[in-house]
């Protein structure tokens, strides 16, 4: 369970992760370091929007920046981030499988009920 003293900090980190644009950027950074322009192209958002999201991700400690002259290269910096995303994705996949199984069961029952009515 979450230590009650950490709840505000945990909520703040999840808030940063709760934006689809930020998640897209994090996903684009999984293979490795990228420049802002590469991220703009990868996520299909404007440069100012990507830069704003990168600032939030950097402040939260999820991303770090390496400067080379006037160029900035961003990369993932939190080793726990992949585990968090994997856990959420696995949870969603399990839920989807259960819902699909339920839908197949219900469809089978509807077909059986329709045959009985004939």
Outline the structure in words.
The chain has 118 residues and is mostly helical. Helices cover 67% and strands 12% of the residues. It has helices at residues 7-17, 20-29, 36-43, 47-59, 81-117; strands at residues 34-35, 63-68, 71-76. The mean pLDDT is 90.
Summarize the structure.
This protein has 118 residues and is mainly α. Helix content is 67%, strand content 12%. It has helices spanning 7-17, 20-29, 36-43, 47-59, 81-117, and strands at 34-35, 63-68, 71-76.
Instruction: Please tell me what the overall shape is.
Output: elongated
DSSP helical segment count: 5
Radius of gyration: 21 Å
Strands of the widest sheet, in order across it, are 1-3-2
Mean pLDDT: 90
Portion in beta strands: 5-15%
| Topology pattern, helix = H, strand = E | HHEHHEEH
What's the assembly state of these chains?
single chain
> How helix-rich are the residues, as a percent range?
55-70%
- In terms of per-residue confidence, which ranges show pLDDT below 50 for 5 or more consecutive residues? none
End-to-end C-alpha gap: 54 Å
What summary fits the major beta sheet? Answer: 3 strands, antiparallel
Estimated structural class: mainly alpha
What is the number of beta strands? 3
Annotate the secondary structure layout.
Blueprint: H1 7-17, H2 20-29, E1 34-35, H3 36-43, H4 47-59, E2 63-68, E3 71-76, H5 81-117
Antiparallel strand pairs: 1-3, 2-3
Summary tags:
mainly alpha, elongated, 118 residues, single chain
């Amino acid at each position: 369970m979450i230590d009650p003293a950490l709840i505000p900090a945990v909520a703040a980190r999840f808030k940063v992760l709760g934006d689809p644009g930020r998640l897209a950027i994090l996903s684009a950074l999984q293979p490795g370091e990228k420049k802002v322009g590469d991220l703009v192209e990868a996520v299909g958002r404007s440069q100012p929007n990507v830069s704003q999201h990168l600032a939030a991700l950097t402040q939260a400690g999820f991303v770090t920046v390496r400067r080379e002259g006037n160029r900035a290269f961003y990369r993932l910096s939190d080793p726990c981030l992949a585990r968090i995303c994997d856990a959420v994705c696995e949870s969603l996949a399990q839920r989807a499988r259960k819902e699909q199984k339920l839908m197949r069961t219900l469809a089978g029952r509807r077909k059986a009920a329709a045959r009985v009515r004939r």
